[in-house]
Design goal:
Layout lengths: L6 H11 L4 H4 L4 H9 L7 H20 L9 H10 L2 H4 L1 H30 L9 H12 L1 H5 L3 H9 L18
């Protein structure tokens, strides 16, 4: 895995792993979580980061004695349980770290999906595609389940009824040359 990700990404993943609730937060590391907060200066003020270590210490102690959290196995479940038990109000900075960590994984997956789609859409013949045309093509490629549910005849009829078309689209499966 070290060869697949950069050192910065590996450090980030290492910090995120410190929030893992498994085995009574056995991976919990306050220094790494403080570093994670440093990566988000808009979410954690310098004053907030000063108090973060105290909140992290209290959070860890509380999680290890509160039986409602003993069966929590992942970050998503931790976030839900913190909401249900109102712990997100008691530990707002820790909850924000959990939220950012969950958001990061979704955002990373979405970005990877878009880049994968761009690779598939921009072939040698279409490598000059830019702007709105590329965006439209990517939407169709990424959201293909939605577009598969639309009847092609409806789309064909829509374009045939447009006034700005010079030639009518072929109603048969063969392409007509105008």
């Amino acid at each position: 895995m070290n060869h697949r990700f950069s050192e910065a990404i590996m450090n980030l993943l290492d910090c995120i792993a410190c929030l893992d609730p498994k085995n009574e937060f056995s991976n919990f590391d306050m220094d790494k979580l403080a570093h994670l907060a440093d990566l988000y200066p808009l979410d954690f003020t310098s004053t907030g980061r000063t108090f973060l270590s105290q909140e992290l210490q209290s959070f860890l102690s509380d999680m290890r004695i509160d039986g409602r959290f003993f069966n929590v196995e992942d970050l998503g479940s931790l976030a839900k349980k913190m909401k249900e038990t109102m712990k997100y109000r008691v530990f707002p900075m820790v909850y924000r770290l959990v939220e950012l960590t969950l958001l990061l994984s979704v955002a990373t997956t979405s970005v990877e999906r878009v880049f994968s789609a761009m690779k598939a859409v921009t072939t040698d013949l279409r490598n000059r595609m830019r702007g709105e045309w590329l965006n439209d093509s990517l939407v169709v490629y990424i959201e293909n389940e939605i577009f598969d549910s639309i009847d092609n005849k409806l789309i064909l009829n829509h374009f045939q009824n447009m006034d700005s078309r010079r030639n009518q689209l072929s109603r048969s499966t063969k392409h007509s040359v105008a």
